[in-house]
Amino acid sequence: MFFGTHELAVPVLEKLEELSLRPLLVVTRPRVGLMPGPMAREDEEPPPHPVVNWAQEKDIELVRSEKATEPALKERIAELKPDLLLVADYGQPLPSALIELAERRALQVHPSLLPKLRGEHALRMAISNGDKKTGVSVFLPNEEPWAGDILLSEEVEIEDQSFGNAFPQIAALALDLLEQGLTKVDKTKKPKGRKQNAKAATKTPRLTHRHRRAPWHLESDAVYDRLRAHSPPGLFTTCRLKSIEIASGRALKLVESPYGESGTFLGIRAGCIAVLCARQTAFGIEEVRKEDGSSLSASEAVAELGLSVGDLFV
Fold first, then answer.
1. CB of 86 closer than 8 Å to CB of 16
2. Is this structure's pTM higher than 0.90?
3. 3-state class of 166 per DSSP?
């Protein structure tokens, strides 16, 4: 039986099928990706849901559940009498009452080096934090979220990588460790792992689409890390009441020390749209993506948007 929602879920489902371990039931949260922010339009179309599509294509029973706490879900799992609950990128901790329904309890694969970054979107947060390394952990879920004993874990270098570049490495490692973890579970009903160090534990914050807004109030290096964490598609910002999607950019090294309000347009510098950030640093927008998917260079974007030095990005 499988619980998963975000990017890692479908690769794990495909690995299970490759191992002839097709799940009896797939449980996923209703919405994939970042949650909409408080200002989101009610009529906004949700993003495509790969887990839902996969389960429907494979004709596997599917349940959409935000927190897996519904009595009907518990009853259905009890009816199916699963051998194991497998969790990958579900985004919520499983209730212990569900875990106890499976003969071999549960196994979870998580894209971080636990106990760091307990919670959903852990890889995005590692990149956004500017971490040079992260990893994958396979652990035994218990009543405390993301705090179960670790069976396997391995480190991955992510320095200067975007989410899009780092994810294939993370996914490949996750599938390898998952297969090893399943072997351990198969050999014994109660495999032993190592305890997590609770004092070293960190949690991921609740990410919404607001986390994709360019944080001009931070230093330029932090803006660059945030851009990497959400690329693709990138960050967004607003200037002259026009929404702009930042497809690529970098922290700039300026000879002078600019003054002004964070978000101020400083002009074209080093071929980029230079935007003032905290502590007199500057971020350079290299490429802007339009609504139709086409791209504009910095100079093209300035001309098309009619930007003037001193305009404010928010």
1. yes
2. yes
3. helix
